[in-house]
Amino acid sequence: MPETVFGLPTHAIVVHATVVLLPLAALVVLLHAFWPAARHRLGVVTPLLAGVALVLVPLATQSGETLEHSVRESALVERHAELADGMLPWAIGLFVVAVALWLLDRRRAGAPADDVSRARWVPIVAGVLTVVAVGGTVQQIVRVGHAGAEATWNGVVTSSSTSSGDGD
Prior knowledge:
The protein contains 6 helices and 2 strands, in the order E-E-H-H-H-H-H-H. It is an all-alpha fold. The protein has one domain.
């Protein structure tokens, strides 16, 4: 993977794609699980989007490790890298849930009424797994992103102590 693209670190570009697509995939999985009208419209888009987001996570991590070697060492960068290493399991979980929801829908469409996919407990388990995967994915990407923003912008932007914002 190249270190830069158009003069920018590859990590910045890949991370922005990941930060957009992973929460979008989480939202789509949530809609797929709990909104039947959306479920019918989304179909195979749900696992495909979650799959693309999953592929982006290791690319973001790899490009971040490359960038880490070219910036000065700091505790903030180390914290960001440590949190980023925890993103992949959540992205895998989200992808697995997305595929399972899609397969469950396909099976329901062609299954007899007494089939296991029509059992009462199946949608409950699917809903719980969806909430766990979506919640974990979103909280982890927020933590990783916040740590990355701190590592990037800490000490760069300062607030003025003279402007209190109270209209005086």
